[in-house]
Amino acid sequence: MRIACSGLIALFALCFSSAHAQDVGPQWSLAIHGGAGVIERSSLTPEQDAAYRAALQGALDAGSAVLESGGSALDAVQAAVQLMEDDPLFNAGRGAVFTAAGRNELDAAVMNGSDLTAGSVAGLTTTRHPVAAARAVMERSPHVMLIGSGADAFAASVGLEQVDPGFFFTERRWQGLVKALTEAGQPIPERPAGAPLPGAQAEVAPPLNEKKFGTVGAVALDNQGRLAAATSTGGMTAKRWGRVGDVPIIGAGTYASNADGCAVSATGDGEYFIRATVARDICARIAGGAATQAAGQAEIADADRLGGKGGVIVMGLDGRPAFAMSTSGMYRGAVSSTDPARVAIYADEP
Asked: Which residue of the set 99, 126, 215, 231 is catalytic?
């Protein structure tokens, strides 16, 4: 579905940094997102709006607690993303969308800006926290990306929590799959083993036609000047043939580089974000002298021209996060050592 725009491409870019002094940035800073897409006030009840804001605040609290205590940017982005992976409101971890075969297949990536080390995983089905698996690939293997059953086996071998695939089941995502397959005239798979009975889960999420990209992500700067980025997703509803999007592709959905002065986490139409190498290009723009906000906006515009909608969060070495999107909303938030936590959903929010 395309967003109706008047005139040129509508790009909504918001930055939570107005309270900063001109020459002094924060000692540490964190920004998060929970997905971009067609997210409008009319599509959320007041209770749903409040639930998303509370979830975003919780993720900010988890990440900022790490940074405030002197922890690393890498630890902070992992802490924030893990909290969202456990929240069924988001399309990551518990709450991930289903493939056409009725499975949850999870992707994630992390990158450490201080040394350009990175790790990613794709197609996980039993590892509770894909972002932790991505970090383990980075730190405890000689590789950058692992996929499928091998990635789960590796995660188990290094002691990461394994769960029954039914752990990731949510009723609204299952009904979203049923709706998508019905509309496409495709067969509906059997309800997964271990799934709760229909109606057993409380409905706290938006309607099933919300049309959004629920990928979650975080970028951070710690008090030692290190940047890091992390992203996690369940991918696309009714995806087939082992489809993998931009999230675990280093340079497409996730990138961090102190040398370039940026950390990026993206959410959107993965096929287009891969082709546009969105995350790496933003960092290249910043290395070439562009401001974080301008770099994010320009790259989202490029992806939009290819046909891809979505958004990005960008963190610079000055600790001032930027948000850019070509959609009507993006679940997002930011906090730093000098600014209180703020969360937002709709594109027109300050």
From this structure: 215
